[in-house]
Amino acid sequence: MSARVMVVDDVEANVRLLEAKLTIEYFDVVSCHDGLTALTLAAETQPDLILLDVMMPGMDGFETCRRLKAQAETRHIPVVLVTALDGREDKIRGLEAGADDFITKPLDDVILFARVRSLSRLKQVMDELREREENSRRMGVSTDGDRRLRAEGGRVLVVDDNEAQAKKIADQLGVEHRVTIEANADAAIKAVRGPLDLVIVNVAADSFDGLRVLALSKSGDARRAPVLAVVDPMDRARMVKALELGAADVVNRPIDPDELSARARTQIRRKRYTDFLRDKLDSSLELAVTDALTGLHNRRYMTGQLDALVNRAVHGGSSVALLVLDIDHFKLVNDGFGHDAGDEVLIEFAVRLATNVRAVDLPCRLGGEEFVVVMPGADLEDAGRVAERIRRDVASQPFRIMGGKEMLTITISIGVAATCGPHDTPELLLKRADEGVYEAKAKGRNIVIAKAA
């Protein structure tokens, strides 16, 4: 699907011209003629990029951009201000309003489309992260809360062999950020793989290929840090290539300190928002397969792993064993000491369980006081030995609860089963282990029962 671009300009001829150029390049185009309509249309159509004219009657482009960035529904959409203004103050004003770039008329089609493609790719990555996080939230596994994303205190690497220019960048950004300068290309390529919020590369460097450094800084583990390319405005080909290679933004030489600060703040804020979404996604994925109380894997994870391992075993792979463990008389703990004490017992039991299984085993909480251990590559005898070790450890030491005020003797009943032929299934394996637990309970508890097919 092509990227959707919204064009906002009060001059009909300008709108039609941009629509025609973008359509030829296979972009999906929507348009309007004033700032108020732009706010509504952007929220409704969710474009991948907004080309916004500055000089409009009523609400100008600066104010429209500021409001777009203030609304939760539209703040993630890249905005490029398009105007005949070419003053330094206007450019900085636009960047501080939240614009991602500032393009002057008459438009250079090559630069325009390079910026449109670059920012559209960025928006699509952000959309994927936001969609995954929203899906996790709907599933009830997303972490709560938001945080105010600051643009100060960033870790910035300047890759530049021009000593005077590098010092100028460091002096300007050093007021708000932690800046490191690297003039050697090989050392810089190693440095970009560290924890950085922004990389600034002089792509017109004399002693190394700046475009190569840029390309390598967008590969592998380093790709998350945005790159701000320092370019010669007369070298259009190098500027376009920098954007094609993944530069998030460009700044022209000679560098304007205030413009540099504004662009750096924009990139660092966006990097932290992206990190925030990734962190939430990672936390959501972990919550989806982890029991919140004990930290062990949950039933969902156990089911998926057991299905795969049994399927492999019945098709000639190594066997898989299963332990089902049930805490004896757990209801008496809850009734006699309260559910908080019961939770303490479950947490301590999970620790003892996890420390007594093999490194390859998967201890899981099935629910309540029932636990499962999936044992890849184990047979019935191997699993029985591990089960007996767990049983002894649980019974040998009392469980401290209520801040150590009470000591409880806890025992467990364990059923053991292992795969036994081409017709076995995860359900049959789990059923046999369950039957072992029931038999252990019937025989007085605190017993391990292995159930062969």
Textual characterization of the structure:
The chain has 453 residues and is an alpha/beta fold. Helices cover 48% and strands 19% of the residues. It has a 5-stranded parallel beta sheet with strand order 2-1-3-4-5, sandwiched between helices. A 5-stranded parallel beta sheet has the order 7-6-8-9-10, sandwiched between helices. Helix 8 (210-217) links the parallel strand 8 (198-202) and strand 9 (227-231). Helix 7 (185-191) packs parallel to helix 8 (210-217) and helix 13 crosses helix 14 (380-396). The radius of gyration is 30 Å and the shape is elongated. It starts with a strand and ends with a strand. It is an enzyme of class 2 (transferase).
